[in-house]
Amino acid sequence: MHPAPYPTTSSQPARTRRPAPALHLLHGLWVASCPSCGFQLATARTQQRCEQRAARRVCPVCHQDGQ
Ligand SMILES: [Zn+2]
Question: 54, exposed or middle or buried, with CB in 10 Å at 0-12, 13-18, 19+?
């Protein structure tokens, strides 16, 4: 019953509301960046941690209207 900012499809699970961050391994450190603008969302030493941290963050560049 909550409004969705994206066009909903019946086959789309609710967990994939946001696009997955782009993960890069740089000098032994995993970096998650916004897939749209490249803003660095999170860093971690393991890919899993990096994904988890990035999943909780919202890109401030792509979501300036949220404030
Ligand atoms: Zn972004």
Answer: buried
